[in-house]
Amino acid sequence: xxxxxxxxxxxxxxxxxxxxxxxxxxxxxxxxxxxxxxxxxxxxxxxxxxxxxxxxxxxxxxxxxxxxxxxxxxxxxxxxxxxxxxxxxxxxxxxxxxxxxxxxxxxxxxxxxxxxxxxxxxxxxxxxxxxxxxxxxxxxxxxxxxxxxxxxxxxxxxxxxxxxxxxxxxxxxxxxxxxxxxxxxxxxxxxxxxxxxxxxxxxxxxxxxxxxxxxxxxxxxxxxxxxxxxxxxxxxxxxxxxxxxxxxxxxxxxxxxxxxxxxxxxxxxxxxxxxxxxxxxxxxxxxxxxxxxxxxxxxxxxxxxxxxxxxxxxxxxxxxxxxxxxxxxxxxxxxxxxxxxxxxxxxxxxxxxxxxxxxxxxxxxxxxxxxxxxxxxxxxxxxxxxxxxxxxxxxxxxxxxxxxxxxxxxxxxxxxxxxxxxxxxxxxxxxxxxxxxxxxxxxxxxxxxxxxxxxxxxxxxxxxxxxxxxxxxxxxxxxx
Length: 480
Ligand SMILES: *[C@@H]1O[C@H](CO)[C@@H](O)[C@H](O)[C@H]1NC(C)=O
Ligand SMILES: *[C@@H]1O[C@H](CO)[C@@H](O)[C@H](O)[C@H]1NC(C)=O
Ligand SMILES: *[C@@H]1O[C@H](CO)[C@@H](O)[C@H](O)[C@H]1NC(C)=O
Ligand SMILES: *[C@@H]1O[C@H](CO)[C@@H](O)[C@H](O)[C@H]1NC(C)=O
Ligand SMILES: *[C@@H]1O[C@H](CO)[C@@H](O)[C@H](O)[C@H]1NC(C)=O
Description:
The protein is α/β, with parallel strands linked by helices. The chain has a domain at 61-263 and 359-451: Rossmann fold, CATH 3.40.50. Helix content is 32%, strand content 14%. The chain has 15 helices and ten strands. A ten-stranded mixed β-sheet has the order 1-2-3-5-4-6-7-8-9-10, with helices on both faces. Helix 1 packs antiparallel against helix 10 (325-331), helix 4 crosses helix 5 and helix 6 packs across helix 7 (278-285). It is globular and about 65 Å long. The two termini are 32 Å apart. Bound molecules: 2-acetamido-2-deoxy-beta-D-glucopyranose (NAG) (5 copies). One 2-acetamido-2-deoxy-beta-D-glucopyranose (NAG) binds at residues 31, 33-34, 37, 333-334.
């Protein structure tokens, strides 16, 4: 989930290259300055892509909607890392595989696998191959260009995938349906059902199944793995734990959900009663992406919630540029709240149904489950996560589930900082699960970590706070 307020995205205005994409002049509402800004943002975004050539993400010719989910379509055993900024020692592969949407429809999707230099040593490691973390990323955007497997820093860089692989775990990371591979072989568009935890959980499960088929000696059929995600991916990880109840995958050792959205449409409704709050402005700003998500799940809904202004910005500015979060924030500059979405659009029956289908939490799950939340999170507020934990825990108690859920809150931490603040917890937790250390006994445990000097630490609402990228003719930039 993300803002489109320029104030949170100063970085989108930096480093604008000379290459200007043509073809968005048909917008009737984005004026000269608006166009200049989106072009700058889009050009900077393209500089952050490992490749501008999306041929890897063309739907493979042997895709068929009759294939079961988790089928392997393409394997790139070794990804050329010269255009990525990936730590030494690590290597990467990419796969294209089949996933299934909420209707069970089979779709092609992509994923990367980040390989460690050497595997984490666990008691069973010799027999079981590489311990794995199935990583579910947060919002990158909702269009083709927003596949983290084509981001030079894999979007979450040292916050998650680099760190996990450097610590000896193979990281299997889906891009999610609709990102990267955007069409079926017949040209039909694949929408991205943003913030639909159960759909992204399908993408995560199927990526694990397909990655094991691609590398059976490294990722063995029963090898230990933990599912983990943040933000949109936190919802995916929680939904993944729920999916394990009916569709277990061998080797599952638990899930970590950081800052998971749970009931997004309710959160949006609350926002309209709290419009002066930053958290409210952020989710209000996210409405076009939510409207696109409802359309991805129910094509007949067909963007009904967009106004003529937001329709113009979506289809004549953002889509032609294939823009992701940075460009998204710029494409909607100066669109007022009234112009952004039709009033009460979320009362439509399709949206109500989407709200029900997209929910993570408040359902039976297979644990152990670790849920983490920052008390100052303005994107997925702590007071949306805690009630979902409490309700789930009350179900656990009353229905005598033999499962464990641990909820840890981090004082004063915002959306991305909560990942860093909690690293000491989740990294050890994951290694314990992968090593076969028993998890805490069934039941719920809640705790708060009070951070030291939280007034004096740097807080960022954005992911890209530490990694720059430079081309070889600007390699002097690396020496800073
Ligand atoms: C947004 O509106 C403000 C106030 O009217 C104006 O100064 C600014 O140039 C506008 N920005 C864009 C990108 O159009
Ligand atoms: C699709 O083709 C690739 C490459 O030829 C092959 O490795 C893969 O197994 C095929 N998948 C299916 C489901 O036919
Ligand atoms: C404001 O948001 C809170 C949740 O933070 C919610 O409980 C409340 O109902 C909202 N106010 C209105 C008037 O919607
Ligand atoms: C999924 O099923 C629903 C209900 O039958 C239908 O309205 C919707 O269009 C389907 N979505 C897709 C992507 O096929
Ligand atoms: C959605 O609406 C557009 C124009 O308003 C129309 O051209 C298109 O055919 C519609 N698509 C569906 C799936 O109803």
